[in-house]
Amino acid sequence: MYGFLFGAFAIVFGIVITLGKWSFDYFKDPKGLRRYPNFAPFAGITNIPYMLLSHKNFRSHRLYELHSRGVPIIRTGPNSISVSDMRAIKDVYGHASKCTKDGSYVVQAGTHYHLADVVDKPEHARKRKVLSSAYAIKNLEDWEFKVADKIERLIAQFDKRCSTKEHEIAIDYRPWTNFFTIDAIADIGLTHRMNFLDNGSAKTTSMRPDGSLHEVDFRDCLYANSKATSVLSYSYDWFQRLTKISKIDPYFNKLWKLNEGWDGIPRYLAAERWKRYQAGEKLDDFFEALMHDRSGAEHNLEWGEIVAEITIMMNAGSTTTAISMANAMYQLIKHPECMAKVRAEVDEALDEDEAVAPYETVKHLPYLRACLDESLRLFPPISHGLTRTTPPEGSVVAGDFIAGDTTVAVSAFIAHRDPVVFPEPERFDPERWLGEEGKELGPYFIAFSAGARGCIGRNIAYLEQTVLLASMLHRYDFEFARPGFEPGRYEWQNLHLTELPVMIRRRERLSEKL
Ligand code: HEM
């Protein structure tokens, strides 16, 4: 009885002390952050309101509403701010910026950092050098046949699912874009066949730490990680404890279990590829570039680092591009005048019976690229503000001095809606990207972030998106399976669209020839 009372008293005492300290820090305000409005009550005292926002809502949309009222800097947590002023892009992410990735990357890292979560600048530069040969445009064009192979497999599936005058079939385009990008990156990166396109499913093998294997769903596992970390990673100091505590909740418990399945997928893929490497197979892929440079000098990476790099490649290398492909198709179906224009451009460039668009032929089609960029502008697959910390001496961000070790973030979703740079920001308007005026938008387009930590996979993303979209539009007509369809949007670590139910028909001009 006394033990129970003592325990309850200790918990209440702990809560009171913690709340007291948070409030004391808030009013003491050593960094001068109280001058910025809180996005919600208590946001200046604790990260809990932002974590709740992240759990329940589209956080960048909420911040956008607040910034649109003419507030350039909003406090999102005791030590974090969201900035909508476009000058902040250069100050926070630019090559000359002294800001670095912040604690949210550190708490989510595994035993070894990978290219995307390493914070230390020299260590990042070392990794980027190793990986840049793998991601170089030269390799990329050599690997185009791997992408073309995936297009052929997708076409084989879509041909079977085409609607006809007699028989209408609705398919969800969204998962197919994911099967496509996962199959493609596994082949480019590891010469591994996932066969998701052939199977129409993301079932795959995961390896437990003890080496035993089990079957999991790639997308379910990866998205579970994305959902859980998009909430909990905003509490840096408490992340590990919250991860344990959150397992009491059935929702989070399920996510963390699925996340174990996710950890096992790159572990399995790395082990399989390693066996082939050990057996002396010479394969032309990303893994080979991880092992040694072009002259054959070994990189001698630790096993944990190799698995970490494969993890980020399979994650960042598939999810973002798949979302982007589904969004572009959604926008084009929704805007038939843009669809007609881009299709005319593609048809003009391709032979009538060409099924897979060669990259060389379609990569410079201006309207096709403009459609992709406009879709990325409106719904950037990484939409939330990427968190950076100011250097210890502080830094000027958008004209304001921000004290050292403060988290600052500019959301692509918000920046891309600045009406001065992007007039009528909610309008899908590919024309804005054309000509000289279009080129001037470059510094404000941050779908791939910017500076030294900008996306290394951008070339792969454009290769896959351009070839896929051109091939699809050349072969099929698309329409929403439900007239007036609008997708739901979930913002986890990525901004997902729920589904994209469409009907596909072989274009008459082409099918007549068969
Ligand atoms: C449309 C597709 C893509 C979009 C919108 C995108 C977006 C981004 C963004 C915003 C970042 C910065 C992340 C941060 O600061 O936390 C990033 C980094 C990165 N992306 Fe992508 N990405 C795409 C495709 C890819 C692909 C296909 C790959 C790999 C094959 C890839 C691999 C990476 C890696 C490794 C980084 C970390 C780079 C570094 O810190 O040096 N991405 N990407």
From TrEMBL:
The UniProt record lists the keyword Phosphoprotein: no
Q: Which residues cross the membrane?
A: 6-24
| Keywords of this entry | Heme, Iron, Membrane, Metal-binding, Monooxygenase, Oxidoreductase, Transmembrane, Transmembrane helix
> Annotated Gene Ontology MF terms?
heme binding; iron ion binding; monooxygenase activity; oxidoreductase activity, acting on paired donors, with incorporation or reduction of molecular oxygen
State where heme binds: 455
Required co-factor(s) are:
heme
Instruction: Please give one Pfam family short name.
Output: p450
The organism sits in which domain of life?
Answer: Eukaryota
Q: Which CDD domains would you find in this protein's record?
A: CYP67-like
Matching entries from PANTHER family are given as: CYTOCHROME P450, P450, PUTATIVE (EUROFUNG)-RELATED
Family statement = Belongs to the cytochrome P450 family.
- Name this polypeptide is given: Cytochrome P450 monooxygenase
